[in-house]
Amino acid sequence: MPIDAEAPVRLADIERARAVVRRYLNVPTPLEPAPLLSRELGCEVWLKLETLHPTRAYKVRGALAKLSSLERERLTRGVVAASAGNHGQAVAWAAWRLGTSAVIVMPKTVDTSIVERCRAYGADVRLAGDVYDDTLALAHEVEERDGRTFVHPYGDPIVIAGQATIGLEIMEQLPAAQVVVAGVGGGGLVSGLATALKTSGWRGKIYGVEPEGADAVSRSIAAGHVISVDHPLSIADKLVAKSTLPITLDIFGRYVDQVVRVSERAIADAMYEYLSRLSLLVEGSAAVGLAALRGGLIDNRGRHVVLVVSGANVSAELIAQIVSERRARR
Predict the structure, then answer these.
(1) What dihedral do alpha carbons 249, 253, 257, 258 form, nearest 10°?
(2) What's the pLDDT score for residue 157?
(3) Do domains 11-57+156-328 and 59-150 have the same CATH topology?
(4) Domain 59-150 grouped into CATH 3.40.50.1100
(5) pLDDT one-digit tens code per residue, 128-159
(6) Which of 113, 154, 319, 324 is deepest in the core (most CB within 10 A)?
(7) What are the residues whose beta carbons fall under 8 Å from the beta carbon of 305, sequence distance 6 or more?
């Protein structure tokens, strides 16, 4: 697909973001073959390990790109973010790394270890509501009152460009890649991946994967406009959002081949498989791609398939519950 000058994010934007990412992060992150999965699934499976960033998720790419784009005066005034976890950690880390302050608004349900890590980076963490969308009002109040820059987790072209740098790395690490699969919450990751891949002339297919209980993007695509989901819920809590935004919906319509949905049980099974068979600790948002492959939802016949594995921020209690339940089935 040719580069579209009217697209929300362009290849030149992604290249600029890449220069920033390279300055602060150990990239490219590894792209490892998974022969055990390949043998069982009838395709060549590769794992793009975004769990190895300082915050254990890809979000730090977009946060760095956004904060680095701010003029010195705005950066000095600090930033504010609303987050269910990974974006908040990313903004806190980027602010710490760039020498400014951050206010992070998170749901009351967020794991305490995530709050502690954000505070360790010097962030002022405030709790509001039960899901990501509930945190927005307080975050915008802080933005207006204190003059801080609001850093959106997926509705900002610069943030999307930062996440898109993963796509450039995949093409260089595995030119033979034919399918790329990643989780969908608000849509920023898959929007970025799809933009990087398709505007570079890549001819493969890109799939987004949503939890069945938090499928705002699927519904929005079907309706042709943004749809909100009441009371979204999933074990993949970092993918729980009530809605997407026009910018991400635009990109999905241009470049994303399909969005599929997976059950809660399939997500938990995939988390368990990563831990017990591949020795990888992942949260639900990182496991949805494998859940979709196992469920036969991805056209992977004989192809080179890349699973973007992002998110290792999961509580020990949840992992213990998942392990216990699966052992009890035996």
Answers:
(1) 50
(2) 98
(3) yes
(4) yes
(5) 988 777 899 999 999 999 999 999 999 999 99
(6) 154
(7) 41, 43, 44, 45, 46, 177, 178, 179, 180, 181, 293, 298
Task: Return the pLDDT at 3.
Answer: 47
Tokens of 181: 């699969």
Domain 11-57+156-328 has CATH 3.90.226.10: no
Question: Residue 1: its pLDDT value, please?
Answer: 40
Distances (CA, A) of 68 to 21, 155, 231, 308: 10, 17, 35, 25
Sign for the CA dihedral angle at 219, 270, 319, 115 comes to negative
Domain boundaries, the chain: 11-57+156-328, 59-150
The rounded average pLDDT for each run of 10 residues, N- to C-terminus, in the chain (330 residues) is: 69 98 98 97 97 98 98 98 94 98 94 95 95 88 97 97 98 98 97 97 97 97 96 93 94 97 98 98 98 96 96 95 91
Distance CA 6, CA 276 (A): 46
3-state secondary structure of 56: coil
Distance CA 102, CA 92 (A): 6
E strands, the chain, are 31-33, 44-49, 79-82, 102-106, 124-127, 149-150, 179-183, 205-211, 258-262, 304-309
